[in-house]
Amino acid sequence: MSFSSVSPSPTNHHQMTEDEMTSENSLLADRLHAMLHQEFTSYPACPDYTSQADHSSTCSPHSRRAVVNDDWRRKICEWAFGVVDHFEYSREAVSLTMNYLDRYASYAQSKGMPLSRKSFQLAAVASLYLAIKLEGRNEQGQRLTISTLVELSRGLFSVELIEQMEREILTALRWKINPPTAAQFIYHLIKLFPVEGIYDVDAKRVCNGILETSRFFSELSVYQSSLAIEQRPSIIAYSCILNAMELVGPVTLPCDVRQAFLTRIAGITQLREDMMEVYNTRTSLRELHSAITDAECGLPGGSSSDANQGTYDTSMLASTRVSPVCVSGRQ
């Protein structure tokens, strides 16, 4: 077989570029469809064990101290973020950690064996260890060892206990440890953003700003059990993007570009702005953002006035490099 050595004409080159774009969009659509299928089949939402704990904990002060409620879960979540920030791992590892932990705790409760707070702490350590093993090396090319996690627990949990709990979690989850996360959905959905529709400002900067702010909202969603446990990641991701875009003024993000973006998303995922699940999730995210900002708990939110001018505070996702709080809670 012979090949022509003639250089392609500009027209052919343009056609090739369009073909490549069509192929890329097709692959993106396939990936999103696969993730949507996964969240319905392999990784469906599970019952919120923290709400059931809050119900049962009204009996006595002792039971309130013993059960795992939303407050206790949030403390564990904060601890996990502290660890991954300190050791410079991706914050996506926390999404995986809490996914494993939530599914395992829900499974245990469904079997009539709700986790005690100490067992929940052990499961949290094992879940983080599992998530970080999948994550691989950190930004410095280093691996977090199980002995380091033992040190973080200050002797509360041994290597053997952590490894045993890791096996129990894998068995309970049936080795399904690659769930689609809200951050992953955001990463793929943002590729549908019509950058070609923005001419007056840097389109890539606008797109990246929406991406970073959306990721920030997705990290907030991990804190709230009613979202992280019961809501689909695709709904959370879509809501995060909508909340991020509402912080951008119409000059920076023209209405027709916004609508074209949402139309592209709806065409592939069937996600729509008027869905009740989306409305409720957006409301929860706004309330959570407001509460955390007011409490000044270390997850700063950008000024809405800045966002309306099309500027983005990338420090929202910058993590403070401080020593993580010990999971045992002892100082």
TrEMBL record:
Q: Which domain of life is it from?
A: Eukaryota
Q: Give the Polar residues compositional bias ranges.
A: 1-14
Q: List the coiled-coil residues.
A: none
Q: Which SUPFAM superfamilies match?
A: Cyclin-like
**Would I find Amino-acid biosynthesis among this entry's keywords?**
no
Keyword vocabulary terms for this entry: Cyclin
Region annotation Disordered: residue ranges? 1-24
The Swiss-Prot or TrEMBL record describes its family as follows: Belongs to the cyclin family.
Protein name as annotated: Cyclin-like domain-containing protein
Organism, scientific name: Helicotheca tamesis
